[in-house]
Write a structure and sequence with these properties.
This protein is of the alpha+beta class and about 150 residues long. Helix content is about 50%, strand content about 15%. The protein has a five-stranded mixed sheet, with no helix packed on it. Helix 1 runs antiparallel to helix 2, helix 1 packs parallel to helix 3 and helix 3 crosses helix 4. The radius of gyration is 16 Å and the shape is elongated. The structure holds FE2/S2 (inorganic) cluster. The site of FE2/S2 (inorganic) cluster has 12 residues, from helix 5.
Length: about 150
């Protein structure tokens, strides 16, 4: 993911970002898409390093743009809520929402993780699927997820 974000940021740097606001916004949108719908603190750091700006600058820019979602969380957990992943991943959903109190679009575990949900990722055969910082992780188990959340 780090390399992908660097590639995206470098491309838009060559297009004039960050001084060219249009190039900067395109950069943030593309990076957000690559990260699964939200730019967490690590992603902001990567992009900022390439563009030569602080993450706080990127957050200030994003605040004015409704389709940009930047969070202060270190990591983003995106859980597929399609039919197959919901059926196969009941224990994961229960753990996140009932035990940890995670709510879509909000941080959890002390602000360390951002929780979001998405529809079917077209990888139903390997359900349940989640994305960790935008990276697809198939056949997720509750035990594996707990390990990931602890390490994060
Ligand atoms: S339901 Fe999750 S990938 Fe299809």
């Amino acid at each position: 993911m780090k390399e992908t974000l660097q590639e995206i940021a470098l491309y838009y740097k060559n297009q004039g970002a960050p001084s060219d606001q249009s190039a900067l916004l395109s950069c943030l949108r593309e990076a957000q898409q690559a990260c699964g719908g939200m730019l967490d603190a690590a992603a902001q750091q990567e992009i900022g390093a390439v563009l030569g700006v602080k993450p706080t600058y990127l957050q200030a820019v994003a605040k004015r743009i409704s389709d940009l979602k930047l969070s202060g969380a270190s990591h983003t957990l995106t859980v597929c809520q399609g039919v197959n992943c919901s059926r196969e991943g009941k224990s994961i959903h229960r753990y996140l929402e009932d035990e940890l109190g995670a709510k879509p679009g909000k941080t959890f575990l002390g602000g360390k993780w951002m929780y979001q949900t998405v529809g079917c990722q077209r990888a139903c055969r390997t359900a349940p699927n989640v994305r960790v910082d935008g990276q697809l992780m198939t056949g997720m188990t509750l035990e594996r997820l707990k390990e990931i959340l602890q390490k994060g």
